[in-house]
């Protein structure tokens, strides 16, 4: 099973509540760029788990323009200060049921970093830039393996001639 953990795109600094902070134009464009890049590696997500916060749902909307999701769910276990071990247990349970699937998680810092650390204990919690995506491979023989972490700042210089650029990043 491949688990892709994504931090939401850049969000507005203020709203009536943290849960209602929307993506900025740059945040939408970061998510768009990462989705275009990731679409060359993943044809479809078998399951997508998204925090119920507005900015994560908007990030998924941008990603879904490039990569389909067969089952999409909002999960309270993916809010910014949720318990990473509980969230990791949820992902591992999906992994036990669906060993060949591609799973996308769209959440927040600090949870995304702690989630990587919880799934891959030999890896310290990485810092995710906005719209950053980590890939973890789950298999019976090795357990969880941290494969990579990429962000729009790395993707854009190397891939921009191959992708339709998004509004504010072009």
Structure description:
The protein has helices spanning 25-38, 54-64, 84-97, 111-119, 152-159; strands at 2-7, 44-50, 68-74, 102-107, 133-139, 143-150. Strands 3-2-4-1-5-6 form a six-stranded mixed β-sheet, with helices on both faces. Helix 1 (25-38) packs across helix 2 (54-64), helix 1 packs across helix 5 (152-159) and helix 3 (84-97) crosses helix 4. By secondary structure, the protein is of the alpha/beta class. The chain starts with a strand and ends in an 11-residue tail after the last helix. It is 33% helix and 24% strand. The chain is built from five helices and six strands. It holds the Pfam family His_Phos_1. InterPro entries: His_Pase_superF_clade-1, His_PPase_superfam, Mito_Ser/Thr_phosphatase, SixA.
Largest sheet: 6 strands, mixed
Order of H and E elements: EHEHEHEHEEH
Query: Taking all residues together, what is the mean pLDDT?
Result: 91
Number of strand segments: 6
Strand order of the largest sheet: 3-2-4-1-5-6
Q: Strand content of the residues, in percent?
A: 15-25%
Q: How many whole angstroms does the radius of gyration measure?
A: 15 Å
Q: Distance between the terminal alpha carbons, to the nearest Å?
A: 34 Å
Which stretches are poorly predicted, pLDDT < 50 over at least 5 residues? none
Q: What shape does the CA trace take?
A: globular
What assembly state would you assign to the polypeptide chains in this entry?
single chain
User: Into how many domains do the coordinates divide?
Assistant: 1
> Class by helix and strand content?
alpha/beta
């Amino acid at each position: 099973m491949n688990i892709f953990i994504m931090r939401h795109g850049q969000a507005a600094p203020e709203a009536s509540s943290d849960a209602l902070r929307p993506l900025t134009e740059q945040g939408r464009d970061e998510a768009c760029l990462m989705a275009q890049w990731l679409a060359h590696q993943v044809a479809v997500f078998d399951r997508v788990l998204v925090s119920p916060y507005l900015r994560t749902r908007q990030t998924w909307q941008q990603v879904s323009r490039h990569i389909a999701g067969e089952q999409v769910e909002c999960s309270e276990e993916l809010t910014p200060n949720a318990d990473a071990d509980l969230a990791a247990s949820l992902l591992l349970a999906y992994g036990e049921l669906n060993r060949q699937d591609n799973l996308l998680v769209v959440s927040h810092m600090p949870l995304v970093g702690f989630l990587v650390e919880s799934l891959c204990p030999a890896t310290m919690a990485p810092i995710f830039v906005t719209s950053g995506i980590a890939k973890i491979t789950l298999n019976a023989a090795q357990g969880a393996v941290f494969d990579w972490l990429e962000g729009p700042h790395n993707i854009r210089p190397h891939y921009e001639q191959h992708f339709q650029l998004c509004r504010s990043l072009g």
